[in-house]
Structure formats: C-alpha cells, structure tokens
Amino acid sequence: MKKYRLYVGVIAAGISLLAACGQQGGAGTPADSGMKGMKMEHAGMKGMKMDDSGMKAMAMDSPNGMPVTAMHRETVTPVLAVLGKVGYDTRRVSTISARVSGRIEKLYVRYRYQHVDRGQRIMDLYSPELITGEQDLLFLLKNDPGNSALIGAARQRLQLLGVSTEQLAAVERTGRASATLAVYSNYTGHIHEAGNTMPGTGPGLSLGSVTSASSEPSGMPAELPVKEGSYVEKGQTVFQVFNMDKSWAVLDVFPENAGLVQEGDAVQLVPETAPEKAFAGKVDEVLPFYNKDGKTLVVRVYFDNSRREIPVGSQVEATIRAAPIKGDWLPATAVLSLGMDRVVFLRVAGGFQARKVVTGATDKDQLQILSGLGPADSVAVNAQFLEDSEDFVKPKE
C-alpha cells in the first residue's frame, strides 16, 4: 500500500510540473519566443524540426540573431595555388637502336644517368652481316671499278647498316673490311637502358612526368644491364637518352578549379630546391583527362632547364592566374558540401531552410553561385553551424 501511494505521488508531481511549464510557455517569454518548433535535444543549434515535405527548417529568431548575407556580383581574377613536380619532356626522349645484328664488342657507357653528348661513341658491334657487305664493296672496287651502279648499291647497303661516311671511306682507303661497327649517339642527355621508365618519381610517362626507374644504393649510380658480349638484333632499341634541357613542370589542379585553367594562363613557379630562383611561365597544355591516382587535372608548363638548376623529380609550388570571371559570389562558409550536392541555408519566415545550389569557380574564400538563389535571397553566413547530421534530410531543389 505504501508503494502504491509513492507511485501516485510521483505521477501527481509530474503532472503539476508539466502544467507549470505549459503556463510559462503561454507567457511568451523572450527567451523562448524565438525557439518555438525546435527540438531541444541539446544546447545550441543541434535540433531542427521537419516540415510536412521532409525539409529541415530551423527557427532562429533569437535576440542575438544569426548573421546572414546575400550574393554580390563581381568580376574576379582567380589565383590558384597548386603543387607539382618537374619531369622530363617526353618529346625529347630519344633512342639508340642497333641497325645491324651482332655482338657488343666494346661499351663506352656503363651507368644509368651517365651524360652523353651528340656524336659520342657508345659501343662497337661485331657483325658478320657488316663484314659481308664490306667485302662485297671491296670486291666490286677491285674487279669491276667501272660498274658505278653496283658499287653505289653496295655503299648504300652499308650506310643502311649504320656505317658512317667516314667509316666507309676508311674501308675503301685501306682495302680491308672492318669486323666491328662503331655506334654513335645522335643525341645529348642522360643514358638509360631500353624500355626503362622515366627516372624519378611522379604520375608517369603518359603524363609527361617521371616514374621510378629502380632502387639504387644511395650515391651509387646503377650499372646498365647491357654488357659487353651481349647480342642484339637489327632494329632493337639498346639505349634511351633523356634530355632535360627543356623540362615540364607537371601541376595538379583540383577538380573544382578545373574549368578555370586554360592554355596560355600565366604561371609563377617556385622550385623547392631553389626558392630564390622563382620564374614565370605559362600553361602550355591541359591534359584532357584526370590523373587516376590523385583525381586531379594535369597541367604542364614547359620551361628552359638547360642550366640544370631544377632537378627532375623535385617539387614546385605554382600560382596560376586564370582568366577574369564575372558572376555572383557567396562566402565559402555559407555553402555546405553534401557529397555531390551543395546547399545553403536560406532565410525564410520563422527560420532557415536548406536550399540546393549549383556552384562554379572558387576564388580564395568565396564561391561562385551559378543557380539556386536570387539576388534578394539571404542565407546564413556559416552553414556549418546550422548543419545537423542526425536530422538533415533532402534539401529543396
């Protein structure tokens, strides 16, 4: 019986408390007049009620108020801060191929990254085919010197095998066939084995940058896999030569700024290895696809690197000055990102309402609004403050 009386007392006290709260609510005190319709789940702006359409709205007519802003029309010149790396210009990658089948008798280059000059002797090839061709020429010169057609054809055949004019003249002058063919480089740059990827680190050959060649002991250049005594086939690429006189600065532009960058835009680059040697350039190429690793747009800036002041593979900081844009702008804090959608909190009677917008360019701390708002619409300055991850439903289109 005592326990029953205790339960009745508790219930009666609860009813009295609810009645008192109802009377106080009817008084319309200033403290609660701006919070009607709000779920008081916790302090601040956590709770938001749903209207009939499932739209989240929030009453914010508190004495302090919520700062609001409106779009402003302005012409801006976006300046994009991006990062990138220095890479070899793929247009200046050359190959040294065997023009005759044979065995490598002598190598004059030994290590990867070894510098070679145009006209430098690279290797000597022993080739039975070469010896046969020289003997045929010498036979014609000795036994049928007046047959200019056959002699000319024999000379042309040797030249197609890679015999230089000087070598050919020496064979005719001495009357002896040479067992080896000297192979010279027609290019200047760093030597690498055939089929090697671009040396350094970066997004890859297809992007005009650099990729890892191989692991090498610190301070020790890797020895080339091509050895004396190795056999090569006619047409086989034996070496590659990378020339860094002209290099690319390969820059990564985030997707939201992809539409701003165009060929010819001015660029200022600051190398990490030599910050005091910042230089100006321009966007030479905007690749028509995203970098699959970083999900960024790849932009290339072509520059003179003949003095080797900026190592390939080093990082650069760059600022791209895009073309001027005229449009409607909001502070970036007023726009909330919800995956693929962007929303603002529109000021309506009695509170705020989520409104989907379409954004464009980004310039410093402001976003371009392409659609979704009118010139007279006011939105909350800080959309993040009004976000409610538990109660937020679908924004109004």
Description of the molecule:
The chain has helices spanning 2-27, 30-33, 128-143, 148-160, 165-174, 383-386, and strands spanning 49-50, 56-58, 68-69, 72-76, 79-88, 93-97, 102-107, 115-116, 121-126, 180-184, 189-193, 231-232, 237-242, 246-253, 266-271, 279-282, 285-291, 296-304, 315-321, 325-331, 336-338, 341-348, 351-363, 366-371, 379-380. Helix 3 packs antiparallel against helix 4. The strands form five sheets. Strands 1, 2, 4, 20, 21, 22, 23 and 24 form an eight-stranded antiparallel sheet that branches. Strands 16-15-19-5-14-18-17 form a seven-stranded antiparallel sheet, with no helix packed on it. The longest helix has 26 residues, at 2-27. Mean pLDDT is 77; it is low at 1-64 and 200-218. The chain has six helices and 25 strands. With 397 residues, the chain is an alpha+beta fold. The radius of gyration is 38 Å and the shape is rod-shaped.
List the helices and strands and how they pair.
Layout lengths: L1 H26 L2 H4 L15 E2 L5 E3 L9 E2 L2 E5 L2 E10 L4 E5 L4 E6 L7 E2 L4 E6 L1 H16 L4 H13 L4 H10 L5 E5 L4 E5 L37 E2 L4 E6 L3 E8 L12 E6 L7 E4 L2 E7 L4 E9 L10 E7 L3 E7 L4 E3 L2 E8 L2 E13 L2 E6 L7 E2 L2 H4 L11
Antiparallel strand pairs: 1-2, 2-23, 3-25, 4-20, 5-14, 5-19, 6-13, 7-9, 7-12, 8-11, 9-10, 11-13, 14-18, 15-16, 15-19, 17-18, 20-24, 21-22, 22-23, 23-24
Helix pairs in contact: 3-4
